[in-house]
C-alpha cells in the first residue's frame, strides 16, 4: 500500500510508487441540533482511529460523507480540518469536489489544492449531464486546469448520477486530453465493466472500486485499490482483507470478505447505508459522528435496537 503522504511532487510520487490501496470514504460528523451543524472537533481522533486500524487514506465529501448536502463554505471547513489532521497522521487525503455548479467545483478544486489535498475526485455535472465521453472530458479538463498540480479522478457512480457512459472508452479518449487525470472511482457491481476500465489505455490509470462486497473477488482480477463505505465501521477488517488477498491467503480473504459483506447487508437492510453506518459508529466506535442531514433520515429507536443486536457479533 502506498498511500502515505510524501514530500515529493504528487505526480512524481504516483509515478514512482503507484497510487493504490484502501481509502475510507469518511462520514461527516454533525452536531445533533436543528441545523445539523458540522462537528469538526472529532476529525483529528477520527483520522488517528482509522490509521490505528491500518487505513492510510481518506476520502472527504463523498457520497458517504454527505458532501452534496453541504454548503460550499462547509465543504471548505471540512477540507481544511481534514488537511490539518492528516498533517499529523500522514494519511493520503482525497477530496470529492463535484455535485455543485461548475464555478463552485472550480473554487473547491483550487481550495483543495491550496490546502494540500493529495488528489481530487469529481462527479460529472448532475443536471446538464454529459451525453458523450467527449463532453465529460471537456468538463473535467476545466476542473483539472483549476488545480493543475493535483491528481484528478473521475467519480463514476451511475446508480446515483444516471450518467452511464462507457468508462473504458472515456479513459482511452482521455490519454492526450486530461493531463492531470490519474484514474476513476468506479462505484458499481459490474466487474466486467470495471475490468475493462482497469485495462483501458494499457492499464495506465488506477481504478478504485467503490464496492463493499466484491473486494476479495476483484483482487483476483487484478484490482488493488478500493474505497468501501463499510470500512467506516470495520476499518481493521478491510485492511486485513486486502492484506490477505494480496498475500494469496485465499481462505482468510474469503472469511474476512464474508464478514464485511454480512456487516454491509445488515446495515443496508435498514433502508439506507449512510444513516446505518452513522448509527453503528455512534453505538460501537469511539468516534461519535452524530445524525445525518436531510433528506436522509435517521434510524428509529426500533431500527437502531435491531441493528445493534444484529451487529454485536461483528463489532
User: What gross morphology would you assign?
Assistant: globular
How far apart are the termini?
25 Å
Strand residues, percent: 5-15%
Output the helix-strand order: HEEHEHEHEHEHHEHEHEHHHH
Structural class: alpha/beta
Record field, number of beta strands = 9
Fraction in helix: 40-55%
Report the total helices: 13
Q: Which regions are unreliable across 5 or more consecutive residues at pLDDT < 50?
A: none
- How are the strands of the biggest sheet laid out side by side? 2-3-4-5-6-7-8
> Residue-averaged pLDDT, rounded?
93
Global Rg:
18 Å
Largest sheet: 7 strands, parallel
Could you explain how this protein is built, in words?
With 315 residues, the chain is an alpha/beta fold. Helix content is 45%, strand content 11%. It is built from 13 helices and 9 strands. It has helices at 10-17, 43-52, 72-89, 102-114, 133-146, 158-161, 167-174, 191-199, 215-219, 235-246, 250-268, 273-284, 301-311; strands spanning 21-22, 24-25, 57-60, 92-96, 119-122, 152-156, 181-186, 206-209, 225-226. The strands form 2 sheets. A 7-stranded parallel sheet has the order 2-3-4-5-6-7-8, covered by helices on one side. Strands 1-9 form a two-stranded parallel sheet. Helix 3 (72-89) runs parallel beside helix 4 and helix 10 (235-246) runs antiparallel to helix 11. The longest helix has 19 residues, at 250-268. The protein is globular, with a radius of gyration of 18 Å. It starts with 9 loop residues before the first helix and ends with a helix. The mean pLDDT is 93.
